[in-house]
Model the fold of this input.
Amino acid sequence: LVGAALAAHHLTSDTQYATVAAREFNYVTPENEMKWSYVEPSPNSWDFAAADQIVAFASKHNMKVKGHTLVWHSQLPKWMEELTGAEAVRAALERHVRTVAGHYKGKVYAWDVVNEAFSDDSKPVLRNSVFQKHLGEEFIAQSFRWAHEADPDALLFYNDYSIEYPGAKLDAVYSLVSRLKAAGVPIHGVGFQSHVNAADAPTNAQFAGVIKRFTDLGLLVNISEIDVSIGSKVSGDLPTRVTLQRNTYRSLVAACVANPKCHSVTVWGVPDKYSWLNMPEFWTWAGQGPHYPLLFDDSYGKKPAYDGVLDAFCGR
Ligand code: 9MR
Done:
């Protein structure tokens, strides 16, 4: 499957965006619309309108849907962040997971059940989220179990970033999913977000080795949110950086294509102009924009990065 993150408001307002998305991709991740603050803005009060719009678009164009994401410390509504007491947090989490996975039962091919649970410290620990604080690590296993009960046919993934190369965060995630597997928790795979910079992206061999560690556990993997920045951290003139970007896409996607248990590659947006990396708050954060991170330029022309992905799929 070759996917893209899509936004409902662009589908409505930009016909070229919708045309290119339907023509180029057969897998869709709602970029924000299934997140907690969107679908359950107040306790047990649901708004699936924007997410349903994307699911309807996907179904109309024979595209599969990746649900994103049931349990994440970010983009939580305030009421959830401020909930206290193990029983209240457990009840709200269970209701959320069951309701959202249940709403999309049979319509979603795979779910990012738990997203970014680990911190970025040199010794990564489970983030001090409302879930971890009140329930401990068990919130992860429970979320997978509830999601599986609500939609037994959906593939269930743990999803994270900065785990595409050897390091302490990778080891922490590997240890977590090994324990989940050993305990019989219904987890089917791991997603590698792959938000990388062309200046220091993991090599094909590094990423292939990481993928193999997980597939050797009997898990599926996917590239869930790839984009390759060629902002100011990358040296050289723009044509040089564009070529490096093409090679980086090819190299990372090839690592996935080479492993039969890697079932999808999803890019985190369609044209550069709508990328999260070009939103002012992230631009400031990264301090390196413009990033030109995606496969299509702002007029929907195919960039060399597009050919890099195509090369990887064609084994070139
Ligand atoms: O692309 C998303 C952007 O529009 C949102 O503002 C942002 C909020 O944190 O989330 C972005 O998507 C993230 C994804 O859900 C999880 N992995 C990292 C992605 C990029 O930040």
The CA atoms of residues 6 and 208 lie 27 Å apart. Residues 31-32, 74-75, 115, 193, 225, 276 surround 9MR (CB under 6 Å).
